[in-house]
Amino acid sequence: xxxxxxxxxxxxxxxxxxxxxxxxxxxxxxxxxxxxxxxxxxxxxxxxxxxxxxxxxxxxxxxxxxxxxxxxxxxxxxxxxxxxxxxxxxxxxxxxxxxxxxxxxxxxxxxxxxxxxxxxxxxxxxxxxxxxxxxxxxxxxxxxxxxxxxxxxxxxxxxxxxxxxxxxxxxxxxxxxxxxxxxxxxxxxxxxxxxxxxxxxxxxxxxxxxxxxxxxxxxxxxxxxxxxxxxxxxxxxxxxxxxxxxxxxxxxxxxxxxxxxxxxxxxxxxxxxxxxxxxxxxxxxxxxxxxxxxxxxxxxxxxxxxxxxxxxxxxxxxxxxxxxxxxxxxxxxxxxxxxxxxxxxxxxxxxxxxxxxxxxxxxxx
Length: 365
Ligand code: SF4
Ligand code: SF4
Hints:
Elements: E1 2-9, H1 15-29, E2 37-42, H2 58-67, E3 72-77, H3 86-93, H4 95-102, E4 105-108, E5 112-119, E6 122-129, E7 136-140, E8 142-146, E9 150-152, H5 154-157, H6 166-173, H7 177-191, E10 195-207, E11 215-225, H8 228-239, H9 247-255, E12 260-265, H10 278-290, H11 297-300, E13 303-307, H12 317-321, H13 343-347, E14 353-357, H14 359-364
Parallel strand pairs: 1-12, 2-3, 2-7, 3-4, 7-10, 8-10
Antiparallel strand pairs: 1-11, 5-6, 8-9, 10-11, 13-14
Helix pairs in contact: 1-2, 7-9
The structure holds iron/sulfur cluster (2 copies).
């Protein structure tokens, strides 16, 4: 069996254009089963306006609502910074307007079911929104880089189905980026049957220091497929990255049978000079060559988040989200406690958390 993935060229967010593209693209997939109850899961990483390029653009969401208009649809998410009011997220990201226009309910993920997963011989009970009992997921990620998982696309967007604080706590259990990807894969395997479609907003995407402090770039694509792992695979090819170099795809391939992929839709070209996060090379060198060296190079080869005081607005989102309490109330980092999960980096609205490299890390990466 071949997995069909549709690539569409689309260079701006004009609603009519996006709708026309999606209308043609989804029809190409020839979906066998369209569920009656649909939960749209955007990437709502932070309460920022669509033009900041951090969240899924509302034009993509409203076009999908129009396409599936005869179904029961809700939009839901559980943002990383759970200390901020969800209303502000809906408003800033542009989803409140959509909900009023189309009479759609907005749901914050709260009540949980549990999925059981086993990683490295340990069992975990992971909470997940109870909405997946009744709804099938229309997964609508944004095409961005990610300092821990290299890219954040279809599979990573599903991490947001885990309600509230558990998301940042899990970082303290899966500290190494490879282990975190292992977790993502096991979690994904438990819920993949509940996802009926993935649509990646790659019109304006983010490269470099994603998922929130990178550089916006007009990639000019929408990528659609039924299974997120195949959609992500094709996004890697578009970005000119070997999928095997992205941990969660490599791990999935090692554990599960991969079907052949058929790419259909518009003619496409590889995105030229796609910039990866600066942490990618750091983790590669550390895990591959330096993990067993205690001194002197291993010790001096490090990166650490640091606050740019000129940009910082003292909102304390970074302090609140840190799973290991490595940031004090006077905004100082405790280097010994920090597990490099980059939650502080993700949650800062003002790009004030930066990655600082030691001299040797700068030299080698
Ligand atoms: S670094 Fe960012 S998240 Fe932390 S207090 Fe300053 S503005 Fe807020
Ligand atoms: S300081 Fe930032 S990177 Fe370090 S553990 Fe806390 S949230 Fe994660």
